[in-house]
User: What shape does this take?
Amino acid sequence: MNHIGLISLLTAALISLGAPSAHSQGSLLLVGGGSEDYGDWSDQPYRWLVEQSPDKSVLVLDYSSGSSWLENYFRSLGATRTSSLSINSVAVANDSATYRAIVAYSGLFLRGGDQWQYVRLWKGSLAEQAIRKVFQSGGVVGGTSAGEVVLGEVVFDARLASVDPRKSLRDPLGASITFTDDFLALAPNILADSHFFERGRLGRLAPMISLYRKSTGKKVIGIGIEYGTALAVGSDGIGEVMGSGPVTILRFTPDMADTLEGSRPYALRNMGLDLLVAGSRINLKTGVTTRSSAARPWVPRPLTGRTPRVLLDGSADTTDWFSVSGSFGRFCDILDARVDTVGIITGQIPDAGAMGAARYVSQGRSVSVRVFQIGIQSRNDLVAATQLGGCSGLVFMHNSQNDRRWLFHDSTAVGRAIRSAAFSSKALLFAGDDVLLAGEKGVGQLYASRYGAYYGYLTLTDGFGLLGGLICMPRIYDQADFVDNRLSGLLWAMGTTNLPVGIALDAGSYAVIEDGQITVFGSTPALVIDARSANYVDFPTFRDPGKAEPRQIAGFIGARLHAVRSTSQFRYVNPTSARLPSTESATPSNAQLHQNFPNPFNPSTEIIFTLNGRSRATLRLYDMLGREVVTLLDEEKSAGRHRVTWEAGKHASGVYYYRLVAGDFVQTRKLVLLK
Assistant: This one.
């Protein structure tokens, strides 16, 4: 045995003999990636790391040599002593000099890169023991990107490959997902991920924690941290969100169901979903989340069903549209070839795509097809308006954002005709980015900049309002540069306009919306962000230096996540109450919140609710802006039917929402005070 090896063994033995029986808890800084800079988002969390270091010393660790920039940055934030250490081999990781160098600091920070290199080179080494020693002695350990991922108890180690979300959703068992759960393990019961919305990793973290449970029988919490964002976890286990974006918490719920089968897509119902923005907190020991002071009560719009079918195709590729099992074939099956006419509405001079769609619809079906190029020049074309009125089915494709305003604007002849036809047609098909036309609101400026959501460039656009409280975002994993804009934009639009359900569709998949039910077809499951059961909504206030608007995304506390695979359904409104202005409970229950009576009313109204078991019940009223008006009830109630009266004589006329929370049951309804 060589001299270095002997020293290493002796050092390890001394560490073991001298280890205390009980350790103090250190602090953690989990950073989701992103470039640090002076005067930017990183100042607060990185300064926090320095302040958590008992002697204000920080050592930057890596498995390869890096620049000295981080050393200087930490020094600018108050560190009294900084240095860097490259541990680039197993031999260096097991060198006693490496151990002594690490424990000489009370603050450690792991750079980004490749988490497998950290695991491969450091696992079981003196370097790993030294990092744990610093943490257990009350020091602070932080990491960014890959350096953050390896701090959790369970590490997606990327030993075989870096797994993309699309593959994880399409075939989680065959996606080469591998775990290490005996490395640093400084964050117990946590599987962490980074660059979360930037790289669309909501679609991989959920399958990962499901796969880990299937493999080991253990439930872990998934924590996805966005780039430019950090979770600062104190020695008490309470983590505070800092920086520009959200920290996403995924966890198992009592009514959650997931399915992982060989060579089949992922299926999921009712995974707990919290999105925490700056100022929010989570207790990692108990799982309890605390909203920021700026969060407001979440009062979602009512959901309603619709009988005519709406088809939403997440792809912009005609190959997907016209495939054997594609959306165009299903659209045509709805129509009667003997009598129906299809209108194809495009904002461009009819191109190969529009003409190909016309040929596909008419070929072998004897369906009459008309192609309408709609823009500023044709917005009052009376001939086109008349022809549109005779269409039984409409297809929307290749309509530019600038031209879309003519498609449903009541001030134009064509707009009135299209709007009338849309609400009376047998079937409507929105393809590619035109999917954003179907709901009440869509998201604009998606492609103005790859950092559009980060810089606050996104806009809200108007739609037909056909989806009854839903919003859908297409092409989620198309063009990686715009994944963040799409997923962040979907959540931002939901939170900004109080829409309770968001659907994320990938290319190659489409959804059929009919009478309160979503049916999905295609290779990638649809992700459904279900905020019906959420309690609060929040928004980042961070503005990138020099930008006028804040980071655009919404944070929800108490939401659910679903993954709906091909030929599966997700019902968001019960058929028997599809047209009631209410939000259904997110969990199956016999509890019920009834519509107030009378409604509209003046000056008093009665609210009735039913509980299926003894529970603490709270009944609160909110105005249109989500501000709490009054708490009508907050007490323990027995099973059965209960009545509460609201005397509204001192309140102004208008629309109000009343919300019942009783255990896991949450429901909201609308009432109208009319004086």
In short: The first strand starts at residue 27 and ends at 31. The chain has 18 helices and 41 strands. The domain at 582-673 is CATH 2.60.40.2550 (Immunoglobulin-like).
